[in-house]
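Dear colleagues,

As part of the handover before I leave the project, I'm documenting each prediction I ran so the next person doesn't have to rerun anything. This entry is a single chain, and its sequence is reproduced below.
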Amino acid sequence: MIGIEFFGNFDLASAAIWMFWIFFALLIFYLQTENMREGYPLQDEEGNAAPNQGPFPVPNDKTFILPDGRGELTVPSGQRGDRDDLALEQSARAAGSPYIPTGNPMIDGVGAASWAPREDHPELDAHGHVKIKPLSKLPDFAFSAGRDPRGLVVMAGDGEIIGRCIDMWVDVPEQLVRFLTIDLNPEGSGETRLLPINFCRIKGDHVKVRALYGTHFADIPGTKSDEQVTLLEEEKIMAYYGGGTLYADPSRSEPLL
């Protein structure tokens, strides 16, 4: 009796390698399209759609379930999430020419003071609790080492005394100081701003802030709450101080030899 074997003339090794190449090609396609959920479609320097969008299509909408009961977020295809109407103008018509600020770059948030539109809610730890809080609101925390800046006057980069440090903001899970609270009047006016700890130097009798001059502190972006700071507020505050390292004094924009 002659039997008909199904795999008699079938090359299993060839089939395995072809299945691998097909799987690998589909994997590359999937990863590349998932990578295009932000920043696409591509635009030129003037905000128009770029003529070459690449060989891969923009993926379909996708819904993400947010942690800590914050609902769902659907990311539409082609949503860039960038800021519009920036106070910038191109220095020349030639492609690649740099853009220069048209107003106050520190207030407009452009150039060295640029910020990204992050989520306007506080950062949470692994347990869903607010990460950064004022030390005055943390009864279980106490200052134990180093120089305590509370009560010290705050000196701007031009030597002007602009206020006094009245509190510290602590990253609770990391147990690090992230911000200082400064009252913009040495006698205490109640008008406060946050000072990132990495933009100051704590001296024996004062806190030095080189990035800003005295006239700049009133325009520091504020916070909606005196007990928490959102990701967007952090972004704007850090950008303002960072921009001050270049824009606070016109001489800082000049070349150094």
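The chain has three helices and eleven strands. The longest strand covers residues 161-171.

All the best with the project,
I.
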